[in-house]
Predict the structure.
Amino acid sequence: KDNSKSAKPKKVAVIVSTLNNPWFVFLAQTAAAQAKSLGYETKIFDSQNNTATETDNFENAIAAGYGAILFNPTDANGSVVNVNKAKAAGVAVFCMDREVNSTTGPTSQILSDSYSGCVNLGKYFVKQMHKKGKYVEILGIVADNNTWNRSKGFHSVVDYYPGLQMVAQQSADFDRNKGLEVMESILQAHPDIDGVFCGNDAMAMGAYQALAAAGKANKVKVMGFDGAEDAIQGIKDGKILATAMQFPKVMAQTAANYADEYFKGKRDFPKKIQVGVEMVTGKNVTDYIAYGKKN
Amino acid sequence: MLVADHITKKFPGVIALQDVCMELHPGKVNAILGENGAGKSTLMKILSGVYPEYEGRILLQDTEVNFANPREAQGAGIGIIHQELNLVPHLSITENIFLGREITNRWGMLDGKAMKDRTRALLDKLKLNVSPDTLIFDLKVGQQQVVEIAKALLTDCQVLIMDEPTSAITESEVEVLFGIIKELRDENKVIVYISHKLDELFKIADRYIVLRDGKTIESGEMKDINHDTLIHKMVGREINIIRNKGYEATTEPVLAINNINLKHPENQKRDLLKNVSLHLCPGEVLGIFGLMGAGRTELLETIFGLHRAHTGSINIKQQSTNFRSPGEAMKAGIALVPEDRKKDGLLLNLDVKTNISITTLDNLQSMGLLHDGKEQQLAKKYIDSLKIKTPSANQLTKNLSGGNQQKIVLAKCLATQPIVLMLDEPTRGIDINAKNEIYKLILELAATGMGIIMVSSELPEILAISDRILVMAEGSITAEFKAADASEDNILKAAIPKNL
Amino acid sequence: MTLNRQHFAKFQSLIALVVLCIVLSCLSDKFLTVDNGWNVMRQISVNICIAVGMTLVVLTSGIDLSVGSVLALCGAITAGLMKNGIEVHSSNLYIGFTLLGAILAGLFTGAGVGAFNGFAITRFKVPPFVATLAMLTIARGLTLLWTQGFPISVFGEKFGYIGTGWFLGIPVPVWISAIVVLTAVVITMKTPLGRYIYAIGGNENAAKLSGINVSKVKIIVYSMAGALAAVGGLIVTSRLDSAQPNAGISYELDAIAAVVIGGTSLSGGKGTIWGTVLGAVIIGVLNNGLVLLNVSPFWQQVVKGGVILLAVIIDKANSKSE
Amino acid sequence: MTLNRQHFAKFQSLIALVVLCIVLSCLSDKFLTVDNGWNVMRQISVNICIAVGMTLVVLTSGIDLSVGSVLALCGAITAGLMKNGIEVHSSNLYIGFTLLGAILAGLFTGAGVGAFNGFAITRFKVPPFVATLAMLTIARGLTLLWTQGFPISVFGEKFGYIGTGWFLGIPVPVWISAIVVLTAVVITMKTPLGRYIYAIGGNENAAKLSGINVSKVKIIVYSMAGALAAVGGLIVTSRLDSAQPNAGISYELDAIAAVVIGGTSLSGGKGTIWGTVLGAVIIGVLNNGLVLLNVSPFWQQVVKGGVILLAVIIDKANSKSE
Ligand SMILES: Nc1ncnc2c1ncn2[C@@H]1O[C@H](COP(=O)(O)OP(=O)(O)OP(=O)(O)O)[C@@H](O)[C@H]1O
Ligand SMILES: Nc1ncnc2c1ncn2[C@@H]1O[C@H](COP(=O)(O)OP(=O)(O)OP(=O)(O)O)[C@@H](O)[C@H]1O
Ligand SMILES: [Mg+2]
Ligand SMILES: [Mg+2]
């Protein structure tokens, strides 16, 4: 087998869009851990949400002789060149969580579909709000296309219900403190809101704290996205209405395993696997832990 | 030729000029005299386009002109050497001299060689033998002033204004400069010459114009007036120049230094000080004379704890000391009035009060907080005793004229109640009256038992007020005289570097 | 720093602020309410703490770019110690921390990092911009190492009081920032240290020749800036009941903006704490106003930049000090 | 700027670089390879373009914090025009853009924004730090408005050549940065403009009194900085075959780091383009090396900051100019 042939262990790179957000830290570290446990030398590259940095990471990874890349792209289109560059250099790329718009580039893509996840959240939101009321949307980093995938998914449902009126749409940069401050200010303008949809759990927690401080916690329904530890706990405590659980662990491990099989010679990988995004609510929260299912 | 007609210039808080009228004649050296703050520089800055806003008219060859900026003035053929040095520290002499009027070749590229040659020629003409590539940063105040002169001489202008061009240079260079001025005068140029050194004026000037408190007092031919009446017109009252009555040092020396050696900070082969030894008694005024670059400033700075690399011993009241910082030196009772008041002496953007009190804040606080009353008192005390001309203790020091700024530096040194006071060129750019006041002060302080070291490049003042005179050349002491046996020429002889 | 000059600096930025407030209260009736007032005050309290430290640094003609990262680091350290204490597995040693202990640890870290900045700047003559730029990266890295990239959460009521509590009808963070401001005002206006700070910024040579121990003063000043960043870190952490590894990113820019809008000159020696406070208020009011008016996030940045520019221009137009 | 001074500045940062390279090539056999060499060169080309502009600005004792945002804005504008041209629906007007047209539009935008900075700084006496800080926000906002927050992608081979092509065995971006550098060297060393830049930074008052039109020079310099940021934007966009709305964030810091490591004094009047180039190389080599050595991303930040600090300290230690 390949492994035995070369004295040095094959090297697997993990290139992640950012480490400034625990969700991605978890994704990257799980992937790295899995690959290591399979006997590969691994290293995590941080693209700092910057596709140009990502390009540098790819070039450096290729130069450093990595055989496979477990890849979390910064941008569906911008990252294509990078993937192709790797392919040209004979390095297999396995995308995690986020898609790149190329059928040929990546050996396989293990994706979680934020969009459809938010569609479900949207449906649940509508149900919980009884199709009417005022709500606020708190966006992530507005320059990040993930922000918009989530927002679009949500609106693709909610916008069909004229009873539901979005009174404010503001950005809090996926940051908990900003989420808190933005919510505080919004509450001044709209004390009478009934719901808040947040682009991620950190902002949801921040928004909740603002509501709690204003004594509106129990009147206003807060939704997040990610399935972070705080949010799961928050749902248990009835602070958060719901969040969308992605499965970074599953994605990361699958990707790492694929890389292993790839080195062992396998070539026919499914082009795309969708890892379902599950909605976590008060009812099913007990089945979940941070970033995954109990097992 | 050039006429100022009822010029008035106001600054916040001060009226610098009040309808001043004057005529500047071609082919003559027009001297402008006045005390510090009389308005000389302000007037010149107006003539050279630095201050575009003013009341009144300026006529150049009978046509009214109003310069929006220095460039226009230059274009109209008015060149000026400003009182403050205006050079770019990290550019070379050549680069400074040609700044704004570079020579370029046909591709618009700088023609370094041509410029360097012109510069070398100018420097030779001014007898300043340093490479044209030397950075201004590495030049001493005096050398920089020569560069300023060279800069003004580069373009041949109809009017050449010199605002205290000799404040930092010594007799020899002054002679050179005068030679050049005479040439220009014979080419029928208008020369405006501002200086506080009256004897210079009598040497070089043809006409005089006296300003006092921003008003024109009188103008006329230099030959029709004598020294004392001129002073009288400037000051508005009689003053008689102080002389030291002579005094014999008897007591134990308060300061004694032995075999101080100091190498150049960056180039160890160069000695700044070579086994310098001296002693100073309480109540004694020790004058140190030397030509530019003789090492006097380094000597004072070394005593003041600014050059830790020196060898040799410094004893104060028989106790050997080794200051690691000026702070320690000041605690030990030593004070230094630095050579360049703007660069090392003053917080120009802060007010007079703050500048005076900065050295003694510890004595001005109660329970860790500054006591405003005490501070005001301190400031007032020195403003009165040194006759500092300022609207209030809260005036920004940058708005005061040179002489008054110097007094503030003196004040902040005296505030520490030193036992040894070192003055480096204390009367540079200061008018006759202020000078006189400072002499008087020095002698009064000496009388109280303070030991005083005065570095100066002006022989008359050295001779006037020192009890004892040391002469330095090339970093070592070449001669010592009692005031009695000192004379201009035996001092100068000792001051000329041997290997020249 | 005569009083008149101080009032004057105040006066300048006041114009900008008043204009802004009038405009906003015309556009939104929600703006001029007591609640919203407290809101803004609470939200700017962190920036005020940082900006006050920044002012001291800038007055010495320095700058501190590391405050944002230091804020994150100190917040994380306090949180970490409070939650887990220190465990050394090898020699299975465990040190628990009281609330106070953890808080002090955080503050000392801040002061320590600041002192390091000051040391690099004075001892090795590294330009402040570079020294603190390097520290910006280093401190962020240390934060990530300490937290492993995950937020540290849940410390309970007592600690939460710092960020969310009220005292005598005024939010605790506002009290904190008020104390910080008053102390700084006293220091700058009434103590030798303050004088030395202005003197060094005005003319370092002259300061040195006046017997001031320049290095010492600078190190003190940078330590203060670090400690104040740590205070900011405490407030943020306590408000969120969680220490975020990515907290405080680009806070240094807000702080500097506040300082400069407040009329402090970046070349040092000129400026006042009051000015900075007003600068911070202007920025806070602006952020709050833009959200109240639900301005699109895209436009917000344009408007914000524009207003900052405008504020300074007004300021200059009225400033006689030039 | 006599030559000796120039060589000298080079010499200082060279030490730091050489040390770094030796260390790295001892630690990793992958480091000293031709491929990796081109890698580093290609990666730093953008920073070099920006840093050269920054050097000119800093030499006038100014600073330009807006370059990162300007890079994003210009990249986005070129991309947008190339892809969609300009459509005015109301008067259903459509203007298409050739590749060249779009590129020029991008460059002019950059120069324009820069000129605006210069104008605010000279005409309204806004401190450079503030003016460009405001522009940092504004330009970012404009980028978001223009892209609506979405990347603009796919322009095909021709444009891609700028960022990914090779010419005479050397990557095109390297050619571009080389041209930029050489032009800048000539300007600073050989033209009156360059002389004025140094003079203004060294002593603005003296420059004025020497009849130099300071405002004009400054506006030119800031325009250059803007245009060079735009060049960087082109390279980035072309490399990615896509214009990212969040491109260039915090690039200004890398550029400034390069400038200062290169021995240019932030107080202006002292420094060289060559120095900056070496500064950029040091940073590039460092980023590259840390990856080759498989340092954990958290540690990387710590190390990076540390090395920058060290580089400057070494630099100072050898600098005779203090
Ligand atoms: N920029 C300024 N702002 C305010 N006041 C000023 C300014 N420049 C000068 N003054 C004031 O104007 C008066 C004239 O100053 P000026 O420098 O012309 O005197 P001067 O005759 O040159 O004195 P010196 O002989 O010391 O140079 C002084 O009272 C000075 O305080
Ligand atoms: N920082 C420095 N850099 C370079 N050369 C210096 C420096 N300081 C002093 N020198 C040189 O050391 C020598 C002594 O300078 P110093 O200023 O002590 O002479 P001085 O007698 O005080 O002359 P001046 O009348 O100009 O004050 C001079 O040749 C001067 O050029
Ligand atoms: Mg004068
Ligand atoms: Mg001297």
